[in-house]
Amino acid sequence: MSDEEMIDRILQGEKSLLDPLIDKYYQEVFRFCYYRTGSEQTAYDCTQDTFLRMLRFMDSYVETHKFKSYLLHIALNVCRDYYRANPPPTVSLAEDSSEQYDGGAQFTGQFPYSEENDAKKSAYERLENSWVIQKCLLRLPEFQREVIILHFYYGYKVREIAKITDVSLSAAKSRLKQGLGKLRKFFQEEGIYEEI
Description:
mainly alpha
């Protein structure tokens, strides 16, 4: 059954379809919130809030694009609201790398590595690089971090990112380009020379 059919039936009173709809997208929304916040607990909280808002506003949903994009748009706003209420601490890359990163669970996503280069690295190097990548992402302004996560981790095209983030196409392109430029610089400072 398509998302549109499920939503139509839910709006007509078949509340039993809510669980399958939520189950279908729960991991995607959680993963987005996790990449966005860097904290497992915060990601759980933001994921719960995302689905609560979805339920509250489901009757106003209009099929203009994919339902997953609609949910990620809600998740994006939930994460933004969370950070307005709880500004994240500043992360300095100049700190001793032996100190534990206290921003939550460690980053485990596959940032744009070439598979050949990644296979050559030891497990320790990959873990160390993922920690540094998370710190580099957290150094980016929120609006640039969002487009990079949506583009590299979710595979959205810039036009789709513009819709999800409620900005113009040119703004989304600019944010992606500037964010990647900053990441390249941060990666070079940290000795990670991945092609992005």
